[in-house]
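Q: Could you write out the predicted structure for this multi-component system? I'm mainly interested in how the pieces pack against one another.
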Amino acid sequence: MGHLRAPFFLLNIDMEFFTNSLLNGISYGLLLFMLSSGLTLIFSMMGVLNFAHASFYMLGAFFAYTITQFLGFWVALFIAPLVVGIVGAGFERYFLRKVHPFGHVPELLITFGLAFILLELVQLVWGRASLDYRIPAALDGPLFTLFGTQFPKYRAFMMFVALMMLLSIWLLLTRTRIGLVIQAALTHPETAQALGHNVPRVFMLVFGGGAALAGLAGVIGGNAFVTEPGMAATVGSIIFVVVVVGGLGSLGGALLASLLIGVVQTFAVGIDASLVGAAASLGVAVTSSTFGYELLSLKVSQVAPIMPYLFMVLILIFRPKGLLGTREG
Amino acid sequence: MSNSIVKFKPLNIGRILVWGFFALVLLLAPLLFTSSLSHTMLSQMGIFIIICLSYNILLGQGGMLSFGHAVYSGLGAFMAIHTLNMISSGTLPLPVSLVPIVGGLAGLVFAAIFGSVTVKKAGTPFAMITLGIGELIWAMSLMFPGFFGGEGGVSGNRVTGSSPFGITFGPQIQLYYLIALYTFVCTALMFALTRTPLGRMLNAVRDNPERVEFVGYDTQRVRYIAFMIAGFFAGIGGALAALNFEIVTSENVSGPRSGVFLLFTFLGGATFFFGAIIGGILSVLAFVLFSELTKAWLLYLGLLFLFMVMYAPGGFASLIMMNLRVVSYGKFKPLIGKYCVLFVSGVVALLGLAAMVEMIYHMQLNQALGEGLTFLNIGLNVKSAASWGGAVAVMLVGSLIFEFTRRKFAVQWSTIQEFIENEIKRKESL
């Protein structure tokens, strides 16, 4: 993108860069949503911030890698999330439930401990290096060519899976009996229990379901990006930002924030402009002796990693309940 | 203790004894352990004690679970190393012994800036926001190589400036005594904080924020002040670390570093003041000694943490205090036998588990060295079913006996606790 000199307004960026970044941004945003939806569901239902959520994503990718070697990708796509879901449900049943009476801080601490242990276990079993987890041959290659760049089939597949997941969550929550029970337990756990519903089991199912969603994201995200033990830490803090920006406990907010952060970050990575360039195009000369040159000379692409966090701080200052949130926690 | 009526006490002998003992330990420790390794470790312990105590102002006393405490200790360290370099270049006439104060002030200022955003929320959202701010600073540390020194970090030289009485801080022992002095003063100040009205209000904000609001206090403001104080002491600790290592890298502000502070403060015990001191000592022991023992030490640490959260949320400090209470009511004797069985079976179960973990690690890392490995002078083979079967059997036997005894122990323990609580109530009603 060396030819993009000084256009700090997106208007005069060429169409190739624009469509490419937009599509990549949306697919990355949808992947973030697959993770943050489970996190938000668990949080709004149980009040538990699952610190190990990104670890389930990592686990999904590593399980999928191993299953792919024996049974192929399509089997892994179904089995790996299932296994991760069972791991999650088991953790809820035998660990999380025991500290539930102590309050929210011990709950957060135990998921922090789980994240720590899962990382060590993954390094123990699969090693510390990144794995050669590849995209299946059937999905390799371009789907269509737009403005001179190819759009990979696999990106489209990721978007499709994410949208299908979004649709099925929505149908499950609004159109089925168990969905109604979940919604009831979300707002009025005591009443739901008094009416004879097994609320602890619903909690276990939601936790396992959320973990399975994260696992699914790992299966399709692991080969699109990198499968390595560090992958949990890379997305882990971003999805917390997504949940805060979207509004704690709001699924719609999580979708909006995921797409926003995904698109903004993807665009930012590709823009080479800096404030020095902007000043130059306005006729102001900024040299290395100007005060704060180090700050002014930062390129947008260099700032990209901190953008989600800056965004979160701004949201917290100006709209503390998040984009679509209804309550101030 | 806390709900007794205020009485005039001319001299608190117990307190003088405890603090005198603490000062004596700090003074004599380097004379007892004379190797250079132990001097380095003792210096690090002092540093970690200060930082863990400052973290415990948030976690233990304020109920604020922060995932970004390394930001304040780390930025304090960076400011300290830059100050040190300014002293070296002669632009700043400041004795090296006051550099930690500069670090503390830096921690205070940054805590005041970031705290204004973070303390807007409590509980879980607070934890998420501190995590976000921690990530922000960590990511920024690679963006500004001028201040953070990029990948290589910033290094300095502590032997600089004036040297009153010939103290140059060159030898580790001289630096140790500086650290020990700061450790003692900071510990005393932080303990004093828990006795002030502010410290008490902080406890109240932790336990019942709604009621505090009704009494007329601003909970956000109490949290904000506590957050800044914690930042100040963390900055002092960070600056001492900068003097100790003479290099500060972006790792000092990283998320994993914050996790370490949280983990060890909790393991030591957040509910008691001295718990964080145990945590600080434990962290250095784990990092320097335990990590030499096995490559899988982080796994064992994580498991210990998990079980601590489940069964002893007060950490080691609460385990000590609970047993001391049992002893003081003369009920410890019947428990001794069970403790022995629990200990032995626990060790056996752990050995079985450790043998398996070591075998898996061996397969993973040292495959080129062959299939055999020695674990506690026992030859194991990663390809032999006997090794695996033996390890599994040892672990199963150990954990079965442990669980069986634990259930009996839990019953006995709760009857004793019930007895003690009834005794306390009976004495109060007298």
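A: Regarding packing and overall arrangement: Chain A touches chain B through 46 residues (CB under 8 Å).
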